[in-house]
Amino acid sequence: MATPAKRPRVGGPGSDPVAGFLRWCGRVGLKLNPKVAVSRRGTVAGYGMVALEGLQPGELLFAVPRAALLSPHTCAISGLLERERAALQSPSGWVPLLLALLHELQAPASHWSPYFALWPDLGRLEHPMFWTQEERQRLLQGTGVPEAVEKDLANIRSEYRSVVLPFMEAHPDLFSPKVRSLELYHQLVALVMAYSFQEPLDEEDEEEPNSPVMVPAADILNHLANHNANLEYSADYLQMVATQSIPKGHEIFNTYGQMANWQLIHMYGFVEPYPNNTDDTADIQMVTLREAALQGAKNASERLLLYERWDFLCKLEMVGEEGAFVIGREEVLTEEELTTTLRVLCMPAEEFREYKNQEGWEESESKGSLCISNIPKLKASWRRLLRDSVLLTLQTYATDLKTEQDLLSNKELYAGLSSREQQALQVRYGQKVILHQLLELTS
């Protein structure tokens, strides 16, 4: 995918991992279009897939039979994982797949060995969870990534110690001592985060999300917001299909979803350089809007009323202590939440009493009222509160927009940065551009 790294060798000295993988594909019925090739040449990072001939929209690139997916149901210990399913429950829902990977990785003759040969070197993954805490704070302060990583690390440690390690120790014949390692578990969590797929549920389906699975061939494709291929699900196969014309020699890109750069670096260890990521966003923490409103309160009575309004917004599930308002380049992704919050925090006291008695306005009132182009048309009090919230958000970064612009515009200086510094700069800059756009629109 998108992390440049060495791959583990399988098959002895001098063996070609791509050739071994293609032979394995033939054995498991994974069919690749002869017009595509797995390659390191002509790709943005690591292994990828390139077009050997021109491809047309709708053309099948490859088809992966469901039996070739690596999941708790297809691994060598599937029966045990099914029997112990209740004991392997965890908040992430990933434990059965991770145990399947831990077992298959150390199995001397794993069915999946040729597939593993195309994996990145687990010791060189570039997710921020593998950066030092000092690096994360210095390079990504204000972006939301350090906080997300700290939660991840705490959850991984808890899950490993309370569920995974006891299970492996209870089955020493299936898990050798070399895989009973928190470090390896961290690495596999990052790999699953970056490389696994979750089959979407039907819109009317209210079940829990599907568990992640590893999809050979599909996980080779790199990501672009402006992608040219898409994974489709059917009863027997998962199929990668071209979504636009792909000229000969061009790389084939999948999408990992509508991902802002902070999400890409957090989950996958890479970013799309500005301005390529059209899905980029900036967050304003919900509590920051409350803080901005409290700053404008003239006395204790007004502050008490603001807390009452906030509590009511919490009751309506419009805000939360850890939530964020998400602003894209062209639209507010949390439009209803932000509109309702601005309305409630800015409305006259008597109007709030009436609003509270009615438990909120009709849903239709907030529809279509807060796209980016409409922000200058908002009430002055709304614009002022939004602007104050943006200013508070910008204060959370260690550097200002001009500093970032100067670095990005000086090719020599930018080239002298480490890969992590470059990626973090792209995350910070993309967010600040959106926030400064909001400043202009609320002035």
Protein architecture, described:
The protein has 443 residues and is of the alpha+beta class. The chain has 16 helices and 12 strands. The chain has helices spanning 17-28, 78-83, 95-106, 113-116, 133-140, 145-170, 182-195, 261-268, 286-295, 300-315, 335-346, 349-358, 380-394, 401-409, 411-415, 419-442, and strands at 31-32, 36-39, 48-51, 60-65, 196-197, 213-214, 222-223, 229-233, 237-242, 251-254, 281-285, 324-328. The strands form 4 sheets. It has a 4-stranded antiparallel β-sheet, covered by helices on one side. It has a 4-stranded mixed β-sheet with strand order 2-3-10-7, with no helix packed on it. A two-stranded antiparallel ribbon has the order 5-6. Strand 2 and strand 3 (48-51) form a beta hairpin. Helix 6 crosses helix 7 and helix 13 (380-394) runs antiparallel to helix 16. It is globular and about 70 Å long. The protein starts with 16 loop residues before the first helix and ends with a helix. Mean pLDDT is 93; it is low at 1-13 and 363-368.
